[in-house]
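S.,

Sequence below, as promised.
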Amino acid sequence: WRRRASRRGIRALTPSWAGLRWARRTGNPYVVSVHGMLDPWSLNQSWLKKQAYMAWRLNRNIEDAQALHFTSKREHELASSRINYKSSIIEPLGLDLTAFERLPPEGTFESHCPDVAGHPYVLFLSRVHPAKGLDLLVPAFARLDTNHRLVLAGPGEPEYVHHIRQLIRKHGIEDRVIWTGMLDGSAKVSAFTEA
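The prediction came back faster than expected:
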């Protein structure tokens, strides 16, 4: 099916969509975890495409779901006024803490990122995306009279990364901001533990 779909220019089934189709066909109940996709801010990005997608696929998936999973009360509140659903579950996402059972030696992050050496730092570890609040963090950090560094760790769309770099330049804190890109393994764990 995937090969036929790509020849016809149709995007292949995503695993979640395939799972929903299987659940409907077999009469099995399912839960949809929305992960912010029903937030008004998210829905207003590429508004026309989102409305078409909602009408074509998402509304039915939500209406047929046994429940919707929200990760916070705020996410639930933002979505509740826009959609119809049977019931909801509010449960934060769990964390796998096994990576923190054996911590890397102190200084591991400094060896990975020498620019932080000798400086305490504030860590932003996430996708560099407009929804993450960097447009608020950068000006707030710029107001701090501190020896701290701001470590921005995570991937991002080049256009938005460029926008954040301009914001950093505008606030005159280029020398206090360190970009690491994506972190994983001991670099990620040590970034957390040494922040």
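The chain has a mean pLDDT of 84.

Coffee later?
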